Amino acid sequence: MLSDSNHDPLALVPLFASLQADDRALLLEQMQLVSLRKGEYLVRQGEEADCLYYVLRGRLDVLRDGHQLVAEIGSGEPVGEIAFFADTLRTADVMASRDSQLLRLGRSEFEQVSALQPQLVQSILRTFGRRLASATTGAPVLPPRVPDTIGLCPAGADTLPPDLVQDLCSALIAQAGSCHVLEAGHLPEGLDPDNEYLLSDWLAAQEKAHGRLLIVTGQGNPHWDKAALRHCDQLLLCGQLDRADEHTDAAVPLHALEADMLGRFRNRHIGLLLWRAHSGQAIAHTRRWLANRPAHLHHHVVRGNPAHFQRVARLLTGRALGAVFGGGGALGAGHIGALRALLNAGLELDIVGGTSIGSSVAMACAAGETPQQMMEAFNYFFLDKKAFGHYAPPLYGLIDQRHVDASLRERYGDTRLEDLDLNCYVVAANLSTNQSEILRSGPCWEAMRMSASIPVALAPWINRNGDVLVDGGLIDNVPASVMHGIKPGPNLVFMLSPGERWQVKTAYDQLPSRLRQLWQLLRGGKGQGDFPRIGQTVARSMQIASNSALVASRRSGDRLVQPPTVPGMALTAWKMGNAQEQAGYDYACRWLEQQGGLDALLAWRDGRH
Question: What share of the chain is helix, strand, coil (3-state, %, to 5)?
């Protein structure tokens, strides 16, 4: 039986909040309080399901076969209800990912309460049904959950600047309405941080009173540091970017607390915030920070810049607006036009990704380029440089890869993905593993080369492991599912339409003989009428992969931005890029109006619609 000192904890559980207070009190008498420390197991796969649990506060991981993360369970949610009602064995392990408190209801107690409170059974079964529906129709990837308690830990040799902590707290309050900073100095007099159970109870009370917590560590109290970070959903490492300059090509050494804590959090629950003193300081050498810190996301901020901290706060609260750009060759100019309309209206993007031509747009966004700069680069690359206009003997690819590589090096220089202002990912297709290759670090020109290596048209890229990589559109032409796995929350999916149905007038039996085809090739001819050329066939084939992405995005609540194709436009019609850009702009202006304007779109982003 739960002690009276807990008052009415069931009022905090949505499942029971609608019950009368007397009914909750009756139910509470049948329940037991269970406390778990970070890393402890609640149930093990294969055990008898003889009870239900409800999370009062904390976070738990559901692990299949001991290691595969299949779900995360947070405050107010039930644990183990599927096996309980099906009267089967537990189908997974459940482990506390932070210090947690739960309520346990045994089978006999449940039956007693059910006889007195039939409405409780209906409420539980509704939750049970929602879980099953989610498991059946949910996204194929598991997005990270929004953290309730965030632990700030020094990265490298520096302590946390107080103004940085305050700027982040202010941004979290602006985004989510609540945030409270806790430091070792806030402990009540007489509370010994060595007493882990009392400290855990006090932290739980603070979370209940204040909502989201920002816990500061690394101030010289190791007992506080370790106990407080066990209570956190997310570990956010904070370091001064230019400290990497002091370590040449070596990794920035870990702070002692970092070294102890990195192994206690899953990579998906680790973030890295790198600050610099002023906006004129270039972002560089991020890889030296990431070399020994497996951060799920990293954030570049300038101290005292509210917009930067607002972006971090949106990523931490599930309100970050992602943008995913699909592949489609010259049609990619439509992405740029659509961006011009949305950015001119005042929309801000927080994280971006793409495939093929969409990769170039994503990287340009992440680098802070304007749509005008993007379009100038588009025309210079494809028209002036004719990057895809130099041909090679048809042995490894139809296009001269050396000219393409030189053009990409000129476009991107030494810029690296991890040094861009925004988090950015690029998708290629790995023919050695038969999977998508997600690129989030490394030279931008190499990432672009991998992501846009259209099979047959361009020689594949061979990475340092010897894997063969080609255009990401071969597997996932609109990689929205990658974004779903990186963050929760809203996304805009920019998808290129190949236009009207592709039909040709040239009959199949009109194809010329081998000798005549060779003669046409030597004379520089365009082939037999409008019969599809190799590059056209391959590029158009990859557009098929867009359909499955469209279904998944609609299911996830993403909003689709799909500019029309201008008449006569084709996947390799680079000279029509300006017309396609204008079509994308005009479309996005109408699209934004249909959404209700910028304010309505921001309300959707923030979950206020």
Answer: 45, 20, 35
Q: How many residues does the chain have?
A: 609
Contact 436, 141 (CB under 8 A): no
Name the least confident of 134-143, 158-167, 352-361: 134-143
pLDDT, residue 367, reads 98
CB 182 within 8 A of CB 219: no
Residue of 356, 360, 436, 546 marked active site: 356
319 and 488 Cβ atoms separated by less than 8 Å: no
Question: How does 187-224 read in b/e, with b if 16+ C-beta sit within 10 Å?
Answer: beeeeebeeeebbbbbbbebbeeebbbbbbbbeebeeb
3-state secondary structure of 314: helix
State yes or no: is 541 an active-site residue: no
Q: Which listed residue (400, 471, 476, 558) is catalytic?
A: 471
471 is annotated as an active-site residue: yes
Hey, what are 429's tokens?
């297709």
Domains parsed from the chain with CATH numbers:
4-137 (2.60.120.10), 149-317 (3.40.50.300), 322-501+511-605 (3.40.1090.10)
Say if CB 193 and CB 225 are below 8 A apart: no
Per DSSP, the residues of 371-413 read HHHHHHHHHIIIIIS-TT--B--BTTBSB-HHHHHHHHHHHHT
Strands (E), 131-269: 149-154, 180-182, 213-216, 234-240
Rounded to two decimals, the pTM is 0.89
SS3 36: strand
The strand pair at 322-325 and 351-355 is best described as parallel
The answer, yes or no, to whether residue 502 has pLDDT greater than 70, is no
Distances (CA, A) of 65 to 8, 40, 41, 188: 36, 16, 14, 43
Q: Which residues contact 369 (CB under 8 A, 6 or more apart)?
A: 377
Q: What would the pLDDT profile of 406-446 be if each residue is shown by its tens digit?
A: 999 999 999 999 999 999 999 999 999 999 999 999 999 99
Residue 138: partners with Cβ closer than 8 Å, 6 or more residues away: 555
